[in-house]
Amino acid sequence: MKNSKFKTEYKLKQHTMLLHFQAKPSSGENVCLRASEVKPKLDRFILKKLGEIKTVKEKYSSWIQAEHLNGNDVAFKYRMTIVRCSERMNIYETDHRTRRDRNNGVPGPNFVLPDIYYGNMGDGPQKYGVFFIDGLKIQITCFIPDLKKFIEENIAEFFAVTNFGTMQNKGFGSFTIDREYINYEDALVNKYTARICLKATIQCSGESSRAQSNLFKMVKDIYSVMKSGQNYGRFPYIRSCIYKYMHEEHQMGNEKAWMKRENIAPIRTTHKMPVDTPEPHEHFKVDSHKCYYVRALLGIGEHLEWYEPKNEEINGRSRKEKIEIKEVNDEIKRVASPVFFKIVDNVIYITADEPNLQIYNKEFSFRNKGYTKQRDGISPRLENEGYISTPDQGMNFSMKDFLKYFVTYYNNERGNRLTIIKELEV
Questions:
Q1: Any idea what DSSP says for residue 4?
Q2: For residues 103 and 385, what is the distance between their CA atoms, to the nearest angstrom?
């Protein structure tokens, strides 16, 4: 850190690629982490540290540059600039080569995006990941001594609990203040309302495609088991933890079993199922619990995709079907996952907020929109539709309790990879 009367300069160390560039960057471009993204987030972090907005406006009015129209945010009186420490950077892109291309020796990208990112699968603009090998410099200019000091005391914690760019909740865009000690678990449990922090450690870190791929492979594995379930091919299928938890702890069925029962989603039986699950395939019809859209507790998207049954395949090729999800009053489009991953070197920290209150007791339609590719023909389930509600808030779902359950569940299924490193009483 370099400090003068009105300016403070920090070096940012990057841990995971920043993912948001719509055009392929080149070394000569001014590609960087944008201050226009970082400063509003730092402003909100400062505001929360200072207290309720009404009190802040009264007590710290001289620090405030402007109030936002939403009435809940302010901009503080300081300037921020961010520049690269060098021209060296890795550009990650999707490998679109076919199997024939690979067999024919067609070269692929130098650095490949992890397969947890699906955004480049369509025909729209491609996104790229960037890793600034020598880091970034961030400069804060502030003419109010007390505000400058407050920023200096809290900026390391801010970067410890914040990511940037696309898919930031999944760990992309992770930076920290270089050579600044911070207790990450303390910072995370104080920021995120579940008040618990989990940790996984892998054997590599850094900017190589292999290191980045392995980090996000672990993130994908954890989150898939947590939310959707995971099929490991020749290994047994691991059921979604949120389905199992809600079934055992809250006596609720789930939307997956319901969609199969209502013939909205296909029933595919190619992977090996645990015999004790009441949810899918030969067991899904006997679930005595009322079904709810329980996966909404971990975020709401606009659609799901399912592979068709084996007996409907054409020449051994599996086709995907799209299930459209809509809230019936059109008040909710998407809700981001409350689960947050922070990656620092080779350590993956996992924490979460409690679910967004607006998702409770809402009715959703699930409609089969047919095969994802037009050339695949017409699905026998096309336009099949049904309605299902999210759980009521009165069922008292606790994200902290769920994550504690998840650690035991995941470790039993995948080996002892996760530990609880910090929890606070809520």
A1: -
A2: 43
Sheet holding 18-21, edge to edge: 18-21, 128-132, 89-93, 111-112
- Residue range 265-307, pLDDT digits in tens: 998 765 544 444 444 444 444 455 799 999 999 999 999 998 8
Q: What is the token pair recorded at 175? A: 């930076």
How many angstroms separate the CA atoms of 348 and 176, rounded?
A: 14
Distances (CA, A) of 279 to 196, 254, 284, 290, 416: 29, 8, 4, 12, 26
Question: What is the rounded radius of gyration, in angstroms, for the C-alpha atoms of the chain?
Answer: 23
* Of 387, 391, 398, the residue nearest 423 (C-alpha): 398
Residue 92 pLDDT exceeds 80: yes
Cα–Cα distances in angstroms (integers) from residue 33 to residues 19, 216, 239, in the given order: 10, 20, 38
Alpha-carbon distances, residue 157 vs 197, 220, 426 (angstroms): 15, 26, 21
Separation between Cα atoms, residue 146 and residue 264, nearest integer Å: 60
The answer to whether the beta carbons of residues 266 and 312 sit under 8 Å apart is: yes
| Cα 209 to Cα 109: distance, rounded to the nearest angstrom | 10
Is it the case that residue 26 has pLDDT exceeding 70?
no
305: Cβ contacts below 8 Å, ≥ 6 apart: 320, 321, 322, 323, 372
Question: Residue by residue, what is the 3-state secondary structure of 403-420?
Answer: HHHHHHHHHHHHCCCCEE
Q: For residue 420, give the nearest of 330, 326, 350, 352 by alpha carbon.
A: 350
Instruction: Give the Cβ contact number of residue 27 at 10 Å.
Output: 11
Predicted local confidence at residue 235, as pLDDT: 61
Task: Output the CA angle 330-332-334, nearest 5 degrees.
Answer: 130
Backbone CA torsion sign across 398, 404, 408, 409? positive
CA–CA separation, 196 and 350 (whole Å): 8
Given pLDDT bands bounded at 50, 70 and 90, which one contains residue 308?
Answer: confident
Phi, psi of 358 (to 5 degrees): -70, -15
The CA–CA distances, whole Å, from 140 to 39, 40, 63, 174, 322 equal: 10, 13, 14, 19, 47
| C-alpha 101: how far from chain center | 32
Terminal CA-CA length for the chain: 36
Does residue 207 sit in helix, strand or coil? coil
